[in-house]
Amino acid sequence: MEKLRVISLKISEEVYKEMILRVPEGERSSFIRDAIMDKLQKTPKPDKILELEQRFGKMEKEFAQIKKYLTDLELLTYKRGKTNPHAFCTDETDHKIIDYLIHYEGATTPELAEYLKTNRWLILNRLRKIQKKSKQQLGKAIINYYAGEKSGKKRAWWINEELIET
To answer: pLDDT tens for residues 76-104?
Structure first.
């Protein structure tokens, strides 16, 4: 037989009267013990919750790895000629940036800043956001930065022609 421990319990007068009416005098301790056991069985153990969180975290990492591999193989979400570059824009400024890049096929941040009459750092942050967002959703960035010279421009952003709708 298990070793029993004594605990004290405070309950409201109303609950006490209800227990006296429903539970006979010799069975109250076992009734309370059973009620506590029922409640404990319904309550998950903290160690189990931690273990499940760790397992889910591991599964998320593994799924991300699989998604990356599928993206690298161009099997996931990447379909040639099917992407609207404006889908990655959040406001009118982003739309103007994308329009300019499509029209001129590429631009430097100072060119875009002059065209939009704004700060070039704002443009740079917007370009990076569009690049990051498109890479997350497509697996490939819709715009890319190239530091070397291309089409007479150095250190410019270029639209990825193979990913956009024509």
So the answer is: 444 545 677 887 888 889 889 988 988 88
Q: By C-alpha distance, which of 95, 70, 71 is closest to 84?
A: 95
> Of 29-33, 59-63, 76-80, where does mean pLDDT reach its minimum?
76-80
CA distances from 77 to 57, 118, 136, 139, 159 (A): 24, 34, 10, 8, 18
What whole-number distance in Å separates Cα of residue 85 and Cα of residue 131? 10
Answer for the pair 89, 146: CB distance below 8 angstroms, yes or no. Answer: no
Q: For residues 117 and 131, give the distance between their C-alpha atoms in angstroms, rounded to a whole number.
A: 22
Rounded CA gap, 120 and 129, in Å? 14
- Residue 136 CB: number of other CB atoms within 10 A? 11
DSSP H helical ranges for 43-119: 46-72, 92-104, 109-116
φ and ψ of 164, to 5 deg: -95, 160
Distance, in Å, from the CA atom of 89 to the CA atom of 80, rounded to the nearest integer, reads 20
Q: What was the pLDDT predicted at 84? A: 77
Taking the model in full, what pTM does it have? 0.50
The first and second tokens of residue 122, run together, are 């704002």
Question: Which DSSP letter does residue 83 get?
Answer: B
